[in-house]
């Protein structure tokens, strides 16, 4: 799998690079969160409310977030 710096030189030479190859040190839950954020179509991309209940955030995070709202 090529590195992003090798793949994305100009719009004409962009090659598909998997997120898994670019983000080697994250787990599947984190990768799923990133994928949901990067959906190009805004109508199908996850919104903030959906992202905040994603399993990537634990109960401690949710409790602190709710306290600030």
Question: How would you describe this protein?
Answer:
With 69 residues, the chain is an all-alpha fold. Helices cover 48% and strands 0% of the residues. The protein has 5 helices and no strands. The chain is flat and about 40 Å long. The mean pLDDT is 79.
Characterize the biggest β-sheet.
Answer: none
Radius of gyration based on Cα positions = 16 Å
What structural category do the secondary elements indicate? mainly alpha
Number of helices in the DSSP assignment: 5
Shape: flat
Helix and strand run: HHHHH
Uncertain regions spanning at least 5 consecutive residues: none
β-strand percent reads: under 5%
**Span between N and C termini?**
43 Å
**Helical content band:** 40-55%
What is the total tally of β strands?
Answer: 0
Average pLDDT score:
79
């Amino acid at each position: 799998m090529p590195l992003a710096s090798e793949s994305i030189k100009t719009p004409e030479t962009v090659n598909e690079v998997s997120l898994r190859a670019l983000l080697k040190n994250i787990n599947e839950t984190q990768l799923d969160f990133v994928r949901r954020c990067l959906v190009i179509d805004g109508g199908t991309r996850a919104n903030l409310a959906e992202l905040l209940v994603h399993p990537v955030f634990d109960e401690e995070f949710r409790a602190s977030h709710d306290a600030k709202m």
